[in-house]
């Protein structure tokens, strides 16, 4: 199979195995049961109308849902075979392997350098040479290094919206996660900044497994190798992006991608 | 709708309709007049209330400024009282207050901040224990300060202090009497609610997105609180601290039995020394002066100094908050 950027890749392997994952808020079921194999070093997009549970599903992949009071998860998620929801599994360790970028860029009110170094420092990296090397690498991967290399000590809040979001991506990459979850990372950005982010996602899929939530179907078609369509808290269809968009097997998917609702 | 507008738009209408709309317009006009009267009355009443408050403040300030400025001088600030407090200055009182306030801050603010962090970050907001703690904090704020003074005497001086003396000094009275440290601790307890409430308010204003960003990077809850939440809340915490300090500087009752001295020519040397304080000095001068006419200017000048110090602290709180807010956009201290 070929990736969206046209480079042939080794045979895809399942990175995240989801089995009957169901998320409840209180008594109410938000999404599921979802069963899905997320392929390593490729981009998987989650699409669907607002409130369909795609963000909830995404956040349950690195246990960020637990921060919401009353949230309960059933089912099984495995990262390279390691259970994420197993007994005695520390969510902190899970989040170090599965990073996340949010809808609204949320840089810390610290310098650019300290934003990217944050995850390293709290992870126990204290050697300043190692930190600056890894900060540079992360910023380069996020295509931000050239723009900020002369002002690493300036406040991150002085950056533009698109730069801030790339900074948040760099910050997530600095701790070298295996999977990167992105929750509508470009929805608050202008078209040029969005194009930057999309290009970046394509490059990132060389080394990372990317799962991206988007309500923009063109974006899913542009960046994703695989696409999952969620509707009313249910995974309706999951397939290679070209198949899902050209020959959907479920009529609801077809209705959605042809713009009949949503 | 005004009458002109109603008739202008109602040219082809039948007569009855025009009359109806005219009656409607008259009713509207009556209602508008009634509203205007109510509005004016309300404005006058609240304006008068405001004037009353300002007038009281002005009377106090004018009286103090007129009688206090003549006695105020560099010497007044740097000399000890002399001749039965009818001459000299209030230097030991200023130093005593500063020392007491510093000790109070060191003792009270960490406890207050820790309490607020526990309440807001760790405790379940629905648990009865959390609610009980919150009610306790609110009640603590409402306890009269003289009760804190008596509590300080009973708990710190007679229980803790005398206990330390019995354990370590063979019953010799060292800690078991009113002292700087006990007054500072009593004042710390008194100002705890100020710090707790201000800190909790500041923690509440930290955006959820920042906590999530930190947790998503694999930070533990403790790391998130220490490296992201508390720094972001720092302006609010600092404001609470300064307000607590300015409250503590002006209180008399809590230090009355726990450490303030009537007259000390020397500065406090130890934590267990007694100390002078401007607020207590005012109380002493106005109730126990041997020569009322001679002490009156000193009394006014002391009050003036106390007021200026408190104002300065309050202004400092405002300035610090404004500056830190500018440095941290996105977070409201």
Summarize this, please?
Chain A has 262 residues and is of the alpha/beta class. Chain A is built from ten helices and ten strands. Chain A has helices spanning 54-60, 91-97, 112-122, 128-141, 145-148, 161-174, 191-204, 217-223, 241-246, 251-257, and strands at 14-25, 28-39, 43-47, 71-79, 82-83, 98-101, 179-183, 209-213, 226-231, 234-240.
Estimated radius of gyration of chain A: 18 Å
SS strand fraction of chain A: 25-35%
Query: How would you sum up the major sheet of chain A?
Result: 6 strands, mixed
The value of Rg of chain B in angstroms is 29 Å
Give an account of the 3D structure.
The complex is a heterodimer of chains A (262) and B (333). In chain A, 35% of the residues lie in helices and 26% in strands. Chain A contains 10 helices and 10 strands. Chain A has a 6-stranded mixed β-sheet, with helices on both faces. Chain A has a 4-stranded antiparallel β-sheet with strand order 2-1-4-5, with helices on one face. The radius of gyration of chain A is 18 Å and the shape is globular. The model of chain A has no long low-confidence stretch (mean pLDDT 90). Chain B is mainly α and 333 residues long. Helix content of chain B is 75%, strand content 1%. In chain B, helix 4 crosses helix 7 (180-204). The chains are: A alpha/beta (262), B mainly alpha (333). Chains A and B meet through helix 2, helix 3 and helix 6 of A and helix 8 and helix 9 of B.
Helix-strand blueprint:
The complex is a heterodimer of chains A (262) and B (333).
Chain A: E1 14-25, E2 28-39, E3 43-47, H1 54-60, E4 71-79, E5 82-83, H2 91-97, E6 98-101, H3 112-122, H4 128-141, H5 145-148, H6 161-174, E7 179-183, H7 191-204, E8 209-213, H8 217-223, E9 226-231, E10 234-240, H9 241-246, H10 251-257
Parallel strand pairs in A: 3-8, 3-9, 6-7, 7-8
Antiparallel strand pairs in A: 1-2, 1-4, 4-5, 9-10
Helix pairs in contact in A: 3-4, 3-6, 4-6, 6-7
Chain B: H1 3-9, H2 15-68, H3 74-78, E1 81-82, E2 87-88, H4 91-122, H5 128-142, H6 145-168, H7 180-204, H8 208-216, H9 221-250, H10 253-256, H11 278-287, H12 292-327
Antiparallel strand pairs in B: 1-2
Helix pairs in contact in B: 2-12, 4-7, 4-9, 5-7, 6-7, 7-9, 8-9, 9-12, 11-12
């Amino acid at each position: 199979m070929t990736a969206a950027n046209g480079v042939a890749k080794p045979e895809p392997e399942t990175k995240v195995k989801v089995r009957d994952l169901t998320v409840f808020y209180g008594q109410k079921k938000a999404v599921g049961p979802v069963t899905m194999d997320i392929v390593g070093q490729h981009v998987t997009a989650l699409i669907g109308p607002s409130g369909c549970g795609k963000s909830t599903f995404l956040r349950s992949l690195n246990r960020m849902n637990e921060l919401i009071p009353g949230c309960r998860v059933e089912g099984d998620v495995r990262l390279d075979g390691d259970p994420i929801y197993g007994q005695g599994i520390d969510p902190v360790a899970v989040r170090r392997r599965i990073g996340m970028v949010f809808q609204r860029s949320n840089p810390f009110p610290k310098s650019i350098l300290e934003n990217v170094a944050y995850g390293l420092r709290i992870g126990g990296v204290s050697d300043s040479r190692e930190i600056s090397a890894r900060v540079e690498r992360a910023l380069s991967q996020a295509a931000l290094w050239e723009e900020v290399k002369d002002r690493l000590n300036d406040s991150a809040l002085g950056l533009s919206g698109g730069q801030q979001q790339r900074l948040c991506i760099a910050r997530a990459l600095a701790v070298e996660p295996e999977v990167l979850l992105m929750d509508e990372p470009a929805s608050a950005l202008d078209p040029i900044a969005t194009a930057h982010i999309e290009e970046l996602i394509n490059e990132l899929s060389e080394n990372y497994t990317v799962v991206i939530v988007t309500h923009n179907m063109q974006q899913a078609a542009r960046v994703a190798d695989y696409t999952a369509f969620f509707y009313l808290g249910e995974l309706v269809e999951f397939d290679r992006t070209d198949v899902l968009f050209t020959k959907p097997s479920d009529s609801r998917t077809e209705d959605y991608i042809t713009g009949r609702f949503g | 709708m005004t009458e002109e507008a109603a008739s202008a738009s109602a040219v082809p209408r039948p007569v009855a309709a025009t009359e109806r709309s005219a009656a409607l317009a008259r009713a509207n006009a009556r209602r508008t007049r009634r509203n205007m009267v109510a509005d004016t009355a309300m404005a006058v009443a609240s304006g008068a209330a405001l004037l009353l408050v300002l007038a009281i403040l002005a009377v106090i300030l004018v009286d103090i400024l007129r009688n206090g400025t003549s006695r105020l001088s560099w010497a007044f600030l740097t000399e000890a009282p002399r001749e039965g407090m009818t001459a000299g200055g209030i230097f030991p009182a200023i130093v005593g207050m500063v020392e007491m306030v510093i000790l109070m801050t060191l003792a009270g603010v960490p406890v207050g901040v820790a309490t607020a962090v526990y309440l807001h970050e760790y405790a379940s907001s629905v648990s009865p224990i959390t609610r009980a703690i919150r009610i306790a904090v609110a009640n603590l704020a409402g306890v009269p300060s003289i009760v804190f003074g008596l509590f300080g005497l009973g708990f710190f001086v007679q229980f803790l202090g005398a206990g330390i003396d019995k354990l370590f000094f063979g019953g010799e009275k060292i800690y078991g009497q009113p002292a700087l440290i006990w007054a500072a601790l009593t004042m710390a307890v008194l100002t705890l609610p100020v710090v707790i409430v201000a800190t909790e308010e500041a923690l509440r204003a930290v955006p959820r997105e920042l906590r999530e960003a930190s947790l998503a990077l694999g930070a533990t809850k403790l790391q998130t609180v220490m490296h992201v939440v508390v720094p972001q809340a720092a302006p609010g915490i600092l404001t609470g601290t300064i307000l607590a300090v300015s409250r503590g500087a002006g209180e008399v009752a809590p230090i009355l039995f726990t450490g303030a001295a009537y007259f000390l020519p020397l500065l406090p040397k130890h934590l267990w020394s007694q100390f002078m304080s401007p607020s207590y000095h005012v109380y002493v001068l106005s109730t126990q002066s041997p020569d009322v006419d001679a002490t009156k200017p000193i009394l006014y000048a002391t009050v003036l100094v106390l007021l200026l110090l408190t104002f300065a602290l309050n202004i400092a709180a405002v300035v610090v908050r404004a500056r830190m807010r500018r440095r941290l956009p996105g977070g409201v201290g």
